[in-house]
Structures are given as C-alpha cells and as structure tokens.
Design goal:
The structure is a single chain. By secondary structure, the protein is mainly beta. It is 14% helix and 37% strand. It is built from 5 helices and 20 strands. The strands form 4 sheets. Strands 1, 7, 9, 10, 12, 15, 16, 17, 19 and 20 form a 10-stranded antiparallel sheet that branches. A hairpin with a 2-residue loop joins β13 and β14. The longest helix has 13 residues. The N terminus is likely disordered.
Length: 323
C-alpha cells in the first residue's frame, strides 16, 4: 500500500482553465497523430518522421510543443547512429472537468493487486491464464486457475463467471473514506479475438454492485505494446483502461454516472478487507466474457489499482477508543 497523488494508470485530472495549453498543443493534426502513434509504443524522432511523412525538424518542433504542454516526455538514449530522443506519452487519459475541479484536502492511499492474486474464481471455457513466459496449465481447463503458478499470471480470460480479489485496507484508525477509484485494463473474451464482441462486465465491491461497462469487443489485429514475443498475433492483444468511481453522490465509470450507490453504502472502515469481484452477470444482455491484463500484457503497465480518498475524522477515532 502506498500513499501519494500520482496515479499509476496515468490519468490526469484537469479543470477547463488548466486545459488551455493542452487544447492548444492538440490543435494541430500532426501533433494529435503523434499522440496516437505513441499510444502504440515509444518512438524516436526518426520513427515519428517516417510514420508521419514529414521532416525531422518539423517533428522535433511538434514534440517540443507537446512536451511544453506536459503531454509527452522525451528521453535521450544511445543508439546505433548516436544519441536519439525517445518519446513517450506522459498520460494515458485526460479527464477535463468543465465545471472546475473542487479543491481537495483529502489524502490518498493506493493498493495495487496483481491479477494473478485472486482469491475466488468461476472460470468458464474459453478460459486460461498466462505469465510472461508461458501459458499456465492447459487452455480451457478451469482447474488451471487453481495451480500455484497462477500467482504469476499477467493475463487471464474467461467466457463467463467471475474473478474476485481481496484488498487490504490498512488506513489509519479514524480515517473516513470519501471516495474511491478502481482502475484496470480489460475487454471481452472471444475465441482468438473479435473486435465486435460485446460483453457486459460488472464490478462488485463487498458484494454490492458498483456498475456495469459494456466492452465493445475482444481486441486484436495490432499487438499490445507490452505483450511478450511468444504471445501469438491471433490472440487478444489489449484492453481498454476503465475506472470505476464511487463518491458521496453515486457510482460512475470514467466519470459517467451509472448508479446511485454511494461511498457510505459500503461502510468502509480502517483495518478491514475489501472484496472486488469482476465478472459477467448471468442475467446481463451481452454474455461476452472478460479478459484482464496485468502490467506485463496489453497496453498499460499496471495491475488492478484501488485508490481510497480519505480524511481524518476525530469522531471515528473516539468511537474506536483512541484519543
């Protein structure tokens, strides 16, 4: 568990006024295209020049503007033809609050759980799991999910059912949780891959439904930037980075309200565990399964991340017998 304000899944929250420089930087088609290219992989100036079909000096100027806006980070690395500037995106997603961001005086705790560290699972073929070196067990055999090696998994998939995780909440006594974010990379599960394969993927917290996202498909056709070389091109390659959020007003997915379930409904207290279940409700319309990507697969170098926003509440400390 770590404390801090930087989100490992690289989401930047901004007010409209804070976004002016970013909108200006993205106002040129070439710079917007650079951001799209860097979503696939880190690239140097020469590679960007070839992909865009424009001269290197022009690319250098575009990158400089993106760097000044905080959208791109450039690192100089030794290459076969001398030092090269390698460019990468600083953020995976921008959240713009047009009403302005309220000032926050809360604290944040982050809990990162590897996708292989599930505590319960109901796997339905087609299903399987793999780490960076190989498949774990046998494909389409749910018993493979109970092998000891499952803890090393970096990608898991199932045509239905669920997978459940336990997060240890070691907040200080007297902490009152005001909101939470749950971020993960995921998509549907089709044999091989199918970009048009919808699935209603639901998240439950402590047995209570947070919200359902309809994944449009099981994505393939281009390689996930983190996938190991042995991972076949005809398999699913990457997911979408989705964030489930709960606050005092209700529950949201990527900032879009999906239910009235509020943070107080979960009764989260310090030194208690939180269970997170991810799966497909058998009563949902789209039964397309789910695939979860850890930090060694897909496009986002992260596992499942839970962020708890909290404030210190003296009344709670008194209730716990602490002065």
């Amino acid at each position: 568990m770590s404390l801090g304000a930087d989100m490992p899944y690289h989401i930047k929250e901004l007010s409209a006024s804070e976004s002016v420089a970013i909108f200006k930087a993205l106002g040129a088609e070439s710079r917007a295209r650079i951001m799209e290219l860097l979503a696939e992989r880190d690239m140097n100036i020469n590679e960007l020049s070839v992909a865009l079909g424009i001269a290197q000096p022009s690319v250098t100027k575009h990158v400089q503007i993106l760097e000044e806006a905080g959208l791109v980070v450039g690192d100089y690395q030794a290459g076969p033809q001398g030092t090269q500037k390698k460019c990468r995106r600083a953020h995976d997603r921008l959240l713009i609050e047009l009403a302005g961001r309220p000032s926050r005086d809360d604290m944040i705790a982050e809990i990162d759980v590897p996708i292989g560290s599930f505590t319960q699972v109901d796997a339905v073929p087609t299903c399987g799991l793999a780490n960076r070196e190989r498949f774990i067990g046998h494909l389409d055999f749910p018993v493979s999910f109970f092998l000891p090696e499952r803890s090393t998994a970096e990608v898991i998939w199932s045509a239905g059912g669920f997978v459940e995780y336990v997060f240890t909440n070691s907040l200080p006594r007297g902490a009152r949780v005001t909101s939470l974010d749950l971020a993960m990379e995921l998509c549907s599960e089709a044999p091989g891959y199918n970009n048009d394969y919808p699935s209603d993927i639901t998240v439950w917290l402590n047995g209570m439904e947070v919200g359902t996202w309809c994944s449009p498909g099981d994505f393939g056709g281009s390689r996930g930037r983190l996938n190991p070389d042995w991972w076949h091109d005809n398999l699913n390659q990457y997911g979408q980075l989705k964030v489930w959020q709960v606050d005092a007003e209700g529950s949201s997915i990527d900032g879009v309200r999906v239910s009235g379930t509020r943070i107080d409904d979960f009764k989260i207290r310090p030194w208690q565990t939180l269970t997170v279940r991810i799966g497909v409700d058998p009563n949902s319309l789209h039964q397309g399964g789910f695939t979860l990507f850890g930090k060694g697969f897909g496009n986002y170098e992260q596992d499942i991340v839970l962020r708890l926003h909290y404030v210190n509440d003296p009344a709670l400390r008194s209730a716990d017998g602490e002065m």
